[in-house]
Each structure stands twice: as C-alpha cells, then as structure tokens.
Amino acid sequence: MHIGSLELDGRCRVMGVLNVTPDSFYDRGRYSTTVTAIARGREMVEDGAEIIDVGGESTRPGAPPIPEAEERERVVPVIAALAAELKIPISIDSRKPAIACDAVEAGAVLINDVGGLRDPEMVAAVAKLGVPVVVMHMQGTPETMQRNPDYNEIVADVKLWLAKRVAAAEEAGIMRDQLIIDPGIGFGKTLEHNLALMARLDEFKDIAGGMLLGASRKSWLEMLVGAGPEQRLPGSLAAAVTAALAGADIVRVHDVAATRQAIDVINALRKFK
Which residues are catalytic? Predict the structure, then answer.
C-alpha cells in the first residue's frame, strides 16, 4: 500500500498528531492557529514524522461536534500549507465527508475517519477520491462513547465490526489495499477493553490492507499508572512498541522524536526474525 509517496512495506511508520483545536485533551490549544499548527508540522518532520494527521475537531470523551464551516476553517489552510512545503504525506482526521473532500483537494492523501465509514456519504466520498482511509472502531460517538461501553467479547466484537465495515467499503468500490483498520483504543472502551485489545493486536493484522494504532497519551494510561497527560510518555512508548511488535503499520503519536527512536529499534530488530 502507498500513502502518497510513502510505501507501507512491513516497517512500522510514525504518524504525528496535529490537533488544530482549542480543546485537545493533551495539546490544549497550543497549535490552534494556522501559524502555530504549520510550525508544529515542520517541527514534527524534523523529529522524524513520516505522516502528519491534521484534525480540527476534538474527539475526546464527551466532546460535542463542531460546525462544518468551523472545522474547514481550521484544517484546510494548514493542510494546504504543509502539503505544499513538506515531502511527507498529510492526513485529514475528520468524520465529515465534505471536510475530507476539501482536505484532499488541499493536498491530503489519507483520510482518518474515527467514524469508521459508518456514514454512507463518507464511503461514497472515499470511493470517489481514491485515497487510502483509516477505518476506526468506536462504540457510539465521542459525546456518548464512555457512558457505559459494553461488549459480549471485546476482541471478537471489534474484529467482526471492522471486518463488516471493510466488506461494506469493498462493496462500494474501495479497494482492500486502500483500507487501514484501527481498533480504536479509548473510543467506547473501559480499561479492561483497551488492555484486551492491546494484548491481542496481532489478531487484527489481516482484516484489511493495513493497521494503525493510536494510544498516545490517552486516559487509559492514567488508569494504569496514575499519571496525567503530561506524564504519560513512558506508557505511550510502551503502547507504540507493543503495536509495532504486533505488526502495526502505523502508530499515531504526539511525541514523534521519542517514538521514532523506539520504533526504529523495533524495525531494525524485526529484520533478524
């Protein structure tokens, strides 16, 4: 699979998180202007990011949706500037089909849909655009997902849900090698659910053309070690390494430099297996 000029070739790749929002759970608005977001994008490339994922709507637990026009105003200028300047692929993190289309027109080459292609209009947009897409599992919506997450058996349920979304996407004309699945750590899951998914990530590897994991700085780490967002780097690195060892093609992270060093070691070791 190719994401723009980047080939997913068995090595784990590092995606940098760029939240152009005033209410991100971790960044807390540090990159909420076009100028600061572009500067952060450049910094992540210097740190070793291989993809940058630009998002304009917070999906933290309890977060309400924002108007489409507001999201567009936040992300499109940033994507256009970064795509024109940088040599790495730019991704759009959005659940809205119109935003995805505008972002691709501005230069994005990957759509990261936390809605998991549940919106038929998003499915149609992706099929028309012909770019790769991340299909993430989420129970409910960001507003409701943590109220009472419940599953019969978390790993089997998430695998089946993702397999069905992949099949529906293929029926709509999206090629399997353009689909990347994400089990959705922290999205409608308890701590036990997240741990079960992390422990059995290797079972998700063959559902689609690729696998992404985003566990960076999330609150499930605080439940484990009692650390606030600013103190969760060691746990985030452990999650990224676990994902790489399980065969993840991409890890989505806030701390690019530290994660890139850890993932480079894993990629080097995997050559000798």
Answer: 218, 252
